Each structure stands twice: as C-alpha cells, then as structure tokens.
Amino acid sequence: MPSPLPPSPSRPTRQPSSRPPSRPALRLARRVVRTSCRGCHGVCQVLVHLDKAGNPVRVTGDPDSPTSRGYICPKGAAGPQLVAHPDRVRRPLLRTGPRGAGQWKEIGWEAALTLMASTFDRVRRESGPEYIGLCQGTGRPYTEFTGRFIHALGSPNFVTPGHNCFLPRVIASSITMGWLPVADVYGHGGAMPACVLVFGANAMETGAADGMCGAMMRRALRGAEQVIVADPRRTSAARAATRHLQLRPGTEGALALALLHVIIGEGLHDADFVDRHCTGFAELADHVRAFSPEWAAPVTRVPAEDIRAAARTLATVKPACLLWGNGIDTSVNAFQTGRALLLLMAVTGNLDVPGGMVHWVPPPDIRCKSPLENKKVLGMHLLSPERKARMIGAGRFPFGPGCHQPSFWQACVSGEPYRPRAVWLVGTNPMLTATRGDVIEAALRDHVEFSVVSDFFLTPTAQLADLVLPAAHWLEQDDVVYFHKLWCVLARRRLAFGPHSGEVRDDRAVILDLAHRLGLEEAFPWPDWDAYLAWLLEPSGMDFRAFAEKGLVLGPMRYRKHETDGFPTPSGKVELRSSVMAGAGRPPLPVYVEPPLSPVSTPEVAAEYPFILMSGCKVLPFFHSEGRQIDALRRLRPEPRVAVHPDALARLGLADGDAVRVVSPYGQARFLAAADDALPPDVVQADHGWWFPERAGPDHGWRESCANLLYGHDHFDPDSGAEPLKCGLCRIERA
C-alpha cells in the first residue's frame, strides 16, 4: 500500500499557469485551423476541423504545407478519437491497492506533484540522485525537457530506447562528419536526388521517420533515375526499385563494405572531394580490399553481380541520397554499419549538395531546442564527471546514448551495481516495447519503491505504477516544433479543451513545475510553459499568437558549407578512419560481425529454430504500442501477425490466417500467420508492441503476443548497446 500523501514542502510551490481566457475564444473563431501533427516522427502539417462548439472532429492533410503537401496517415487522422476516447486517463491516479490490482483513486495535480517532489527529494537525500531514473519513449516533444530534468537533478540515469532507434546513426554521424546528414528530398537547392539508396527503411509505407514525411520520400523515389533498395523484405519501394538487394537479415554491414570495395577498387569515388575533405582514405582503401562482392555474396545472399551493379550506380548517378532506418539500428553491428553507409555517401561526394545528404540550416531567429543541433538541450553538461560515472552501465558501450535500457531494468531487479528506488516513465510502455518485459514487470511490481507513469491510457506498464499522470495529446499542446525537422520550425496550437481533455497537462509543463519544486531553477529558469515559448520566439520578435498564425518559419538553406567551414570533427574533415573510435579502443574502420544467433554462427541452434526472426518493423496504423484501442486504427490491423512465406507455411501444414506460436530460445508469442511471398522462405517477420486494451486489466493480455519476449539480454552492439531484433532465430508451431 502506498504511504499517505506527505505534507507540502516548506518552500513555496506553484501550479502551472492556467490558459489565458482569450485562448478558447481563439479556437472558436475559426472552423478549420492549421497545426502540426505528432502522431509519429513526421511532423506533418495538418488542418483540424472544429465543430460548432470548437471541438476537433476531423484532421486532414494541409495541401499548402511544404513539409507534407497534404499527406496525412491514419495515426494523425485518428487524433480526435484518441483525445475523446472513453478509457483515456484524464486526472492523476493514485494507486490504492497492491501493484497490478487495478485499484486507483483520482487525486488533484497539487497532491500528485507534492507526492512526486517529496519522494524524489527524499531519495536523492537518502541515497543520491542516481537512485532516481527517468525513462522516456521515442523522441517526441518531451525530449527537450526529460533529459535536462534528470541531469539537472544530478542523476545520469536517463533511459531511452535510443540504442535501438536512430541514435546509433546520430552518434556515428557526429564522430564521422560532425553533423547528421539527412536526405534532401525537398529540392530546396533546385535538384532532387537522381539516385536513392533505401537501406533498412520503410517509412514510405509506415508514415514518416526522422522528421521526414513518407509521402515526400515516395515523391523522391518516383522522380529518381535510379532506386536501390537493400532490405530482406520486398517492400513497395523494393517492388518499384531499379534494383532490390534482398539480403539476409543482420548482414547489412557486409553489404555496405562490399559496396565500398567496388567503388574504391574501381576508382569510382569522388577523388576531388576525398582529397580535399576526407582523412584516412588510403587506410580505408586498404581495409575494404578484402570485402569483395564475391566475399559478400554467400554472407548476404545478394549475388556478386548485383552488388557490383548497385555500387557503380551509386557512384556514378548524382546527386545520390540515403534513406536509412531501424533495419540498421537493431543489430550487434549497428554502429559499424551506420559508419560504413556514411562513408559511402562521403566517398561518392554526396555530402551537403542539392539532392544529396545535407546539413540543414535552422531558422536563425528562433532559439534552437533540438538536441540534434544543440547538445546542451539534454543537459549532460549539468552532470559532473563523478556523477556521469555513476550511470548504470557506464563505460560498457563507448558510443551508447545515455543509460542503457536493458542494463537499467536488470539493475532494478538484481541491485547491481545498485538498485534505483524511484522511476518516472514518460510516454513509454517498456513492458511491450523493450526486450525482456518480464524483467521490467518484476522491477516495477517488486523492486522499485516508487514509480510514476505519464501517458494517455492505463497501459500494462502504467498498471504497475504508484502514480499515473494524464498526458496531453498533440491536439492539446501549444508548441514551437523544433526537433527532427531542422530546416523549418512549425507551430502547434492547442485545439482540444473541455471535458474530453479533463485535467491533462503537457509533460513539459509538468516537468517545469516539478523542477521548480525541487530547486532546479538554474536549469529551468522559465516560470511556466507560456514563458518558455515566449523565450524561444523572443529573437524573432513574434509572440506565440503571431507565430501560430504564421505556422512555419524556414531556415536560410545553403549548401557545400564544408567549402568554407570544414567539418566539425577533430581533423576538420570527414573522418573515414575515425580518430574518436581509435581513441576509445574501438575499430576505427568499419568491420562486419556475424549475428550471434544465425544459421552461420550457431547452426546447431538453427537446426531447432530454422527461421530467421525479424521484428520491430513499423506498420501504418500504430506507433509502437500506441493506438490499439482506437477503432479506426484497429480495423486496419485487428490482430497481431507473423508474416511467413507461403511455401514455408505449406511445409508446416499451416495456412494463411491460422493461429501460430512463434518460439525462440528465449520465449514464445502467439500470432496469426500471414502468407507473404515478399519474404525469403526462411525469414519471418513478427508484429511488435501488441497488447489488448479491450481485454480485462490490469495486464490486458500483454504477454500473449509480445514479440519482444522472443529476445534475450545476451547480445549487444559493443559500440552502441543496440540489440539484434531483426536477426534472431525461431520456429513456427500451430497454436
């Protein structure tokens, strides 16, 4: 049972400011309002249609938007249904019975924040701030404050899924060229990509990724002279591509090295760019000599002649760009593969040229709050070296992004090196979206003393919390949108009010309030959320109302900045041989490592588990574990599926639609078989993030179809801590 609510701290506290009375009047003044979606990572501009009472009833794409040109995916369109869903958490909930019993009572925000502040303060005084962890989900708006808050508090335990998503590529880019190169699919410089390499990405089908709208990517593919797709699946992009390199899952690094071998070995590299702007070319040329297409063909299953043809196309058809994704991140070779692909773009001279891989120029008159451009946003500089050394897993992965998620949850159970006492989970449902959800369940139920979850619904993870805070949806937020999409800043405005919203609050407004209660004013000097927005806009001379009416501010893009500025690396050039990796004792040139469980590395295991297992591939209706209680989305994907080649199903005596068990060396999960001839006969792809909100709580059947229970905590990328979620082993049985 929870302790009684503690008395208020002696220092003065304050509630976040209430909305100005003029704000509801603003929303009633028009029937269609332009804003920015945040149903996933695309940040598309949309039109929100209001009824006579001013409530959002429909969301459509904005045809005048330069970021999305009228596109909207089902997740964005379903925004009003999520806001008004009857099961949504609308007021803070305090646990009143045993954890997981589903017994709650509503409390006010003052009581909830007082409980959080007093508990966090007590833990940091009694044990130290590192005994408090903050776990967040994918990089949504709260990211600008979550890391800053926990680091200002003195704890290095900022836990994210970034080791499996995006951040291995971001960090690899940082040490290689000093910035994150992004595909120039918008044509700002007067040229669109003539060649597109799609590598382990499928955002064209799933909506968006990395701040790019999937529709804009499809437009670039349609206009390209040559499209090369490297993917184990025959996606829609692969079906329309000039060349599909259908590789074995987990061998992406081998394919990238073979492409480098051909380009450099045949003298197809951009010699002028390499000579003037790169270091380590001679070492790279010597290094890749061993990785011929003939070496790579039996490893990757891609014919040597196809590798050669793809490499020649990539080197000679310009400008070329790379669309890359989670197919790279979720591997024990994630970091090295990311580096190899960056080197491909560099040696072909496709960096920061129109239609290539560019470094966006942000708008100069709005204060930058994206950690991609301003690393101080996350507040790591607020930690002393001694505090950083107290991070769980410190030093284990030299290029890992923050506290390693699997290591953190294992520490909560084992107590090694110490057991965190309090955890705040913001926008995350890790029992479904992280590996070893059983460990996370045990940690929250039996070991962590105090846990808080900020979310829309009582997810299986939230059901084990001591306190649940109702989070604001993007339709309920005022924001200056400035995270993934750096070439412009978008406006988001609060359009949902009234009983549907209840007492929900923007996670960042909650963090501001809590930071003030805990004495963190130096890191959070803004009195409230409105003051923070005003501070961001101050250099522009606009207030938030004027900015919202404007809707979008563009950066003054210029290309080939390296001609005058160089590259922000230790050498001032693109480091083909990384001095940073060499200094960390890691291979400074990309290497390939066979997946730890595979037909090659563990044939004895493959004999019992003959299928290569992929999971984590996105599907259009859902954002990881989010959206399954929304009828319009659930109709698009009513049940969890595992895609299996029809010939493989026939050999097993199974048919499309049969209930099956996917069994791995670590666990099992139930799916419906989906016949799919777009996969190789020995590869299967299982949906991830499944739970059943329609079933009785508190567990909502989360274990039944949880693909992440099919993986262990035995194998990680030695550089970034990434996990091999797309190259495991399994067998298929009738359920």
Instruction: Report the portion of residues in β strands.
Output: 15-25%
The total count of strands amounts to: 29
Say what oligomer this is.
single chain
- Poorly predicted parts: 1-29
Which term fits the overall shape?
globular
Helical residues, percent:
25-40%
SSE-based structural type: alpha/beta
Strand arrangement in the largest pleated sheet: 5-4-19-18-17-6-7
What characterizes the major β-sheet? 7 strands, mixed
Tell me the distance between the termini.
39 Å
Rg from Cα: 25 Å
Q: Write down the overall mean pLDDT.
A: 94
Helix count from the secondary structure assignment: 28
Could you characterize the architecture of this molecule?
Helix 9 links the parallel strand 12 and strand 13. The protein has 735 residues and is of the alpha/beta class. The two termini are 39 Å apart. The protein has a seven-stranded mixed β-sheet. The chain has a six-stranded mixed beta barrel with strand order 24-28-25-27-26-29. Strands 13-12-9-15 form a four-stranded parallel β-sheet, with helices on both faces. Helix 4 (109-126) crosses helix 21 (507-517), helix 10 runs antiparallel to helix 13 and helix 13 packs across helix 14 (304-316). It contains 28 helices and 29 strands.
